[in-house]
Amino acid sequence: MKTSIHSRKLFFGTYLLAWALAGCLGASRPVDFYTLTPLPRPTAGPDATPGTIIALYPVVIPEYIDRPQIVTRTDDNQIALSEFNRWGGTLKHELTIVLVENLNVLLAERRANVMLDTLTFDPNYLVTVTVNRFDGQLGNTVWLNAAWSIRDLKAKKMLAVKTSVIQEKAAAQDYAALVAAESRAIAALSREIAAELDRALKTP
Hints:
Number of domains: 2
Radius of gyration: 24 Å
Helix content: 25-40%
CATH topology of the largest domain: Rossmann fold
Strand content: 25-35%
Number of helices: 3
Distance between the termini: 99 Å
CATH class of the largest domain: Alpha Beta
Oligomer: single chain
C-alpha cells in the first residue's frame, strides 16, 4: 500500500512539473522580425526617360549568416543566433533588394535603372557583390566586408574589382539599433559602388 501511495505521489509530482514547464514555454515572449532600411527616395517623381540599364546579381553571403535568426558577434571566434530576433525575409534577398533601391536613389540624376538579376533588358553594366562578413556586437560595432565588381557588358571589359571594409556603430544595445547600423553599412557600400558607376557613366 505504501508503495502504491508513493507511486501516485511521484506520478502527480511529475505531472505538475511537466504542466508547469509547459506553461512557462507557452508564455515565452513573441519573436521580433526586422528588415533592412534603404536610403530615402527623393521627393521628385522618377524621370520617365529611358536611361542606362544596370543589372545586379543576387548578393552572395556566407553560410553563417544565411539563416532566419539575426547573428551577432560575441567574440572574435564566436557568434550567437537569436531565436527571438529574426529577419522578416531571407537576409540574401534583403541585402540584394536594398542595394538595388539604394543604387537607384544614388544614380537617379544619371537616369540609371538598376534592376535585379535580369539580362532580358540588355543591360549596359553588370554588378556583382560577394559579402564575406556581415555581423556586429549589440551596442557596439557592425562590420561589413564585401568584394564587388562592375563589368561593362557592351565593351566586354571589367571596369572595377574592389573590396569594401565598412564599420558602423550601433546607437543602443538592442537588435533594432543593430539592424539600423547594418542598414547604414549597406548604404555606405551602395555609395562606394554608385561612385564607381558614376565615373563609368561620365565616360563618353
